Amino acid sequence: MKAIFINPPVYDFSAFDLWSKPYGFLFIVDLFVKNGWDICYFDFMDRNHPFYHGRKKDKKFGCGNYFFQVVEKPSIYGNIPRKYKRFGLPEEVFIKYLESIKNVDVILISCGMTYWYFGVHEVVDICKKMKKAPVILGGSYPTFCPEHAKKSGADMIFEGADIKNFAAQLNQNYGFRLKYYEKCKPYWQVYEKLSYLVVRTGFGCPFSCYYCGVKKIYPEYLFRNVDEVVEEVIENVNRYNIQDIAFYDDALFYNFENHLRKILENIASTHKNLNFHTPNGIHPRYITKDVAFFLKESGFKTLRLSLETLDEKRQKESSFKVYLSEFENAMRNLVDAKFSKQDIGAYILAGLPGQSIEEVVQTIKYLKQFSCEIKMAEYSPIPGTVDFEISKQFYPALPLDEPLLQNNSIFPLWNFEGKWEKINWLKNLVKP
């Protein structure tokens, strides 16, 4: 039996490889490997593909720019003063790859963001024309927008991340005999080369923020086994000679002493010169003085803290993840531990339902007093979240069920006169 796994190209105004890999998709690959299937894998977003020879220039810590082509904007984006682009390997490279594969039994496609569905539709269309195998679509797009995803042309869509349920549905619909394995792990061997590694030490989040959709993907908050995470990291650091590791966790420092500390200590027993990164915002309340010094000693190079807003009402909507006193204490501890301004970033949210420009400006001005870089995180309306329903009530004329309007980079809920001038002014305001 043979399966093709495909990570599609991205259609958006901007995209950057900031430790970006289809991590959950690789668990599904491992399930098929454990069942004895032959695996074919094509990642449009793989910057180590031979196509990039002579084109690829890594930036700091293995990150970098994707190859892109400027394409026509969808009409819904007609008033946005930015170029629309297709990021990833060219279509002809993919077609040549498909032509080399015979006798395929199933094709599996993933999708990261709901508003990237143009890439999904492109890949489904090509696969349908070239192969007779059923096409299965999973990931964030069908999870949050299942009715829209049914229009993609895929034969089956799968919502969520429950691998056992996925195997059962596939077996029932197509007569396969996939056996479920509880201890699946990301099957990185589909890549010949990696510039960095990404890892999760757990799935889900103990908090219930109004704007976040993680509960729809992972209803429960589950820690992974410490030894399994350590083995995964060390095995792939050795296999690919990797130095940079990014954590994908939504609550990385939760239960720090019994989980992440043990993981880092075990990794350090054999590998002491690794760089660790937290692209997702971490909770300042867990950064005690002891933790800050431990992180510095462990090799953390990128720390992103979640501040989000000074507004107390919105802090309540974020389960009071962040109190200003906790943020200030965390910053003191990180500075004392000799983290530089370039090492620390603080996320603020902009474009929330009912949020004013003034609220964002206040938060920016507050952050200017600290030794950190300010990172403006644009709000994306995610179906199934509390804030999505609030947004629909606030803006009944906006067709937010259209995934293209869930694109955070267009600030979909801000629709005032001079919007882009004001947004550009905010972006300049956050600069040092």
CATH C-level class of the largest domain is: Alpha Beta
Give the name of the CATH superfamily of the largest domain.
tm_1862 like domain
Count of alpha/pi helices: 15
Please state the average pLDDT score.
95
Record the strand order, biggest sheet: 11-14-15-16-17-18
Major sheet description: 6 strands, parallel
The total domain count is 2
Report a brief summary of the structure.
The chain has 432 residues and is of the alpha/beta class. It has 2 domains: 2-174, 3-Layer(aba) Sandwich (Rossmann fold), CATH 3.40.50; 197-429, tm_1862 like domain (pyruvate-formate lyase- activating enzyme, Alpha-Beta Horseshoe), CATH 3.80.30. Helices cover 33% and strands 18% of the residues.
Task: Please describe what this structure looks like.
The chain is α/β, with parallel strands linked by helices and 432 residues long. It is built from 15 helices and 18 strands. The protein has helices at residues 23-34, 91-99, 117-130, 140-144, 146-149, 163-174, 214-217, 226-240, 260-268, 289-298, 312-317, 324-336, 357-367, 386-394, 419-429; strands at residues 2-7, 10-12, 16-17, 38-43, 64-65, 68-71, 84-87, 106-109, 135-137, 156-157, 197-199, 202-203, 222-223, 244-247, 275-282, 300-308, 344-350, 373-378. The strands form five sheets. The protein has a six-stranded parallel sheet, with helices on one face. It has a five-stranded parallel sheet with strand order 4-1-8-9-10, sandwiched between helices. Strands 2-7-6 form a three-stranded antiparallel sheet. It is globular, with a radius of gyration of 22 Å. The chain starts with a strand and ends with a helix. The mean pLDDT is 95.
